[in-house]
């Protein structure tokens, strides 16, 4: 875990020329570096840079990954795959479904990663590291460094999520709320900017492939009844991601558009 944080720092703090080789605003490019994916939709820019990596094509050619953190990126992904299976069983059981249900429907079969870097900010009261949002995935496994900055929304309050060494933060994503018909709630969260130094985090988003998965994901039939009708329309993963990107980081607005 600590080596993954160090690898993230190595990438972001290398020369601009080295990072420029990965710069792209093409969301479907498997490995890309940029700031503010929603730059042209958002009302304000966020104070962060991000290296993103989609492992939709498996196996990925390792040469596509940055050399300065390639080895740890591949090793870290292996551990995330193992943890995904465990979380899938736990969540299936919590819903009263067979333990292998969520794995069987492939809703968390692919991982995409966001390696975030929040630079020191001279005026943190005038911006955010990341605007309030929920995640366009089924589940997110977040690794924080020891500086923190993450907050989650609870009713009308923003609550600090202090980092604990050796642990992950697991967030429910929009699509898990959708297929559970609201039994699980996606988490609205944000990241504060800081004037006292840089902050790093690594988010692993669990979802189906954007490239090959054409399944329509809607409320799970076993969770519906006469008194519990569907609350959401079905949607393909690619369609939801495109809709989310068009809106940008905007709370839970993207999910609301799929309510019945």
TrEMBL record:
Keywords on record: Iron, Metal-binding, Oxidoreductase
PROSITE patterns in the record: FE2OG_OXY (PS51471)
Domain Fe2OG dioxygenase stretches: 108-208
InterPro entries membership: IPNS-like_FE2OG_OXY, IPNS-like_sf, Oxoglu/Fe-dep_dioxygenase_dom
GO molecular function terms attached to this record: dioxygenase activity; metal ion binding
UniProt similarity note: Belongs to the iron/ascorbate-dependent oxidoreductase family.
Name by which UniProt lists this protein: Fe2OG dioxygenase domain-containing protein
Species name: Acorus calamus (Sweet flag)
């Amino acid at each position: 875990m600590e080596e993954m944080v160090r690898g993230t720092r190595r990438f972001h703090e290398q020369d601009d020329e080295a990072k420029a080789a990965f710069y792209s605003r093409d969301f479907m490019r498997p490995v890309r570096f940029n700031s503010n994916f929603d730059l042209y939709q958002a009302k304000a820019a966020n104070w962060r840079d991000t290296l993103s990596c989609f492992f939709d094509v498996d196996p990925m050619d390792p040469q596509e990954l940055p050399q300065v953190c390639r080895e740890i990126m591949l090793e870290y992904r292996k551990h995330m795959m193992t943890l995904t299976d465990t979380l899938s069983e736990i969540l299936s059981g919590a819903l009263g479904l067979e333990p292998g249900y969520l794995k069987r429907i492939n809703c968390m079969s692919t991982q995409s990663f966001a390696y975030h870097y929040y630079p020191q900010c001279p005026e943190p009261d005038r911006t955010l590291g990341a605007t309030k949002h929920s995640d366009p995935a089924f589940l997110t496994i977040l690794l924080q460094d020891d500086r923190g900055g993450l907050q989650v929304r609870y009713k009308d309050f923003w609550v600090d999520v202090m980092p604990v060494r050796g642990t992950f933060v697991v967030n429910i994503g929009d699509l898990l709320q959708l297929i559970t018909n609201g039994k699980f709630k996606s988490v609205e969260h944000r990241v504060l900017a800081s004037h006292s130094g840089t902050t790093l985090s690594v988010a692993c988003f669990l979802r189906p492939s954007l490239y090959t998965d054409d399944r329509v994901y809607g409320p799970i039939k076993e969770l519906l009844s006469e008194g519990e009708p569907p609350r959401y329309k079905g949607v393909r993963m690619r369609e939801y991601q495109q809709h989310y990107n068009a809106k940008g980081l905007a709370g839970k607005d993207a999910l609301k558009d799929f309510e019945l």
